[in-house]
Records
---
Amino acid sequence: MGGRYAHIDAARAIAALLVIWQHCAEMFVVLALSVRHGWMAEVANAADFGRLGVVLFFAISGYVIPWSLREGEAGAGRTFVIRRVFRLFPAYWLSIPLAVIGVWNVVGQAFPLRDLLLNFTMIAEVLGARPALGLYWTLAYELGFYVLCLGLWRGGLLHRPWTMLILALGAIGLAGALLVASVGLRKSELGAIAVSCLNYGAMFAGACWRRWQDGGYPRPSQRVAGALCLGGWLIALPLGCAAVWLFSGRHNDFFVRVPASYGGALLAFLLLTTVWKISWRPLAWVGLVSYSLYLFHPVVLYPVVQVLRGAAHVDVALLTALTAGLSIGLAAIVYYAVERPGVALGRKLSTPRSRLELKPAQ
């Protein structure tokens, strides 16, 4: 936690806490007629903190995941698959029954058995099933990115300097074209595809930034391409959305939220990996348990909302802090009881027997 990537764990913590802020504030602010600190919901909605946190997670994945597949290393693909499965699935599988108990049962709704079983695949929505938690959609993107990285690695392309640059430029360019087309043709489904491009684009941009920091773009043409990618995210996307808002007559909040969340997330990511590196141990520790924090905070949030329903007065800041604290506690339990043993088992299963036999003699 105090090593080279403590600032990455801290960035994960910030991402998870932004998601919790959004979810808590928007639910607590409507609980009573008398509300204190209702500004928290207004700020979270204006900046779309929930999506901003998710996109920050995506950028961090791009920054970290491709380097888990080392070029030329025998068995790297097998190791990657085993370790990713044991890293993600144990805590995720536990979250499903707890979501049914702590969310669906709390609000008095049944959860279909077919949907429950399909949720265990981590791609329930792709298979036409209802997700046990709405936030599961992000995990499908993560899996897609892992599969893409594995395919690129098998093809010998993952660690070539231009690969992620081309993908990042293609993602932001295609997203821009689809956003324009969605307005011109009045087809919202094109906007949804554009958002998917931006989600993957955040991962590609994170990978590009990691390579840039490691000196992996020695050619001027590569640095220009990287600058164009950043310009697309931080300049073209906000200006394009502003133009749609101002001149098309379609005053849709979507064109405010996209630059706020996607552009804001990438800017935050760049700052948190350069001039604002945060290595504060408590925050880095929250980042260590951030996967479980992200998965399990609704299990805490929904019962709290049900207990307070009908209250005469609520303090959004106090309740958000309370929910975050309880969620961090639950996340820590899951991390130490489920996540960390799963990671250890994945490492053991993916380590060649010959290395295991040599280890005691070292």
Note: The first strand starts at residue 34 and ends at 36.
---
Amino acid sequence: MKKTTHALLASVLAAGLLAIVHPAAAEPQGGGRSAEIIREYTLPLFSLENFGYSPEELATAQANGLTTTKLPAIGSGLQQLNGNHYISITDRGPTIDRTVPAGSKAFPLPQFNPMIVLFQVTNDQIVPVNFLPIVNDLGLEVTGLPNGLFDDAPGYLTLTTPAIDRLPFNQDALDTEDVHTLPGGGFILVEEYGPSVVIVSPTGNVLKRYTPEGKTWPEANYSVSDILPPVLMERRANRGFESIAVSADGRTAYSVMQSPLGSTAVGSPYRDSLLVRIIRMDISDPLDLQVTGQFVVLMSSLDAYPAGNFPRDLKISAASWVSEDRLLFLERTDKLGPGGVNWGGAKLILVDLTEATDVTGLPAVVAEPLILEKVTTVLSDLGIAPATSRVVLDVNRELPSITDYKLEGLSILNANTVSLSNDNDFGIGDSPNRASKVYTILLSQTLR
């Protein structure tokens, strides 16, 4: 049974003790400098017992294949609040790749529940303060198990569990990836399964889950509204929403698909696409969210990354609001070479939507929903202008001491400084025994 630790987090936020500092208030200080890691913070060994799991539950998880219970993954999303306080979010929990069935995952701790985490950074350490479990209308934890057969491969308890003995699907479950506070209290989250945008109360209750049109989840124990563009159901496996960028006034939000839509199978016309979709939303009433635009942007050309990467390796893992129609993206690839050598890379990309075309309802797109992702499509022939972009930080080139290959959290502290966090996959998987980290970085150029 989990600890009901959400009260402190809710009360702290409600009291305004952690007022949000937004980058729009920052005063630019020029450029022409070198990028620099100002501080690097590490989460020391920290038992999952602190998340409310009993020693017996964790012992069972270890018997199921969980190799460590003291390296929680808290950095899938990131937002600075005031001073050295942040909120972050876990994803769906520890998983291990299986080979049978292809693409399936083992969930050695299947009861793991996504949580919003409040922490401080001090003396080069991440110091957790509190945890907010995400729950349904019944007060039950939503868990991180797959939602359904047609969206994700089913989960299994262990690497050797017979394929006929899989874990149950759960339409309440969320694979959360980013979080941001809302002006009236509560939080807006994004997750990969739907892909969905989720509104959560200050006490962790799911108030509304917004899904693509046609995906109603009738068995969910909370309100579901299928108002997002239906084409988003063409997401690739494990590539949904990973970012939520919220305006200074809290009325507008953008979310970005992690990867291009469409199949990556050999011969697919979408396999090598570099185009990702950006969804703009009016969230002035979070319980009546409205989609107000859909735009596209092209990720970096492949020659901007180390040899060994393919177009389908690139992804957008975070986004933050810079100013009206301008966003900062965290673009990366987590390609691993022989022996676990990181062939990947990460960049911060300043994206400008000022002249971008809203593709909502365009005849060519209505007639062929994935025409934009076809590698043979010339956008200008369709009268479509993508968002423009430029690199403001090349992590591999400018900050090679950052070796985390899964940077997933981004928060703009001011016009010159950002924080990045990693998803350490609970210390398992391709990069074992890696700790959760937050890097505070001085950019080589001002965000303007």
Note: Residues 24-30 have pLDDT under 50 and may be disordered.
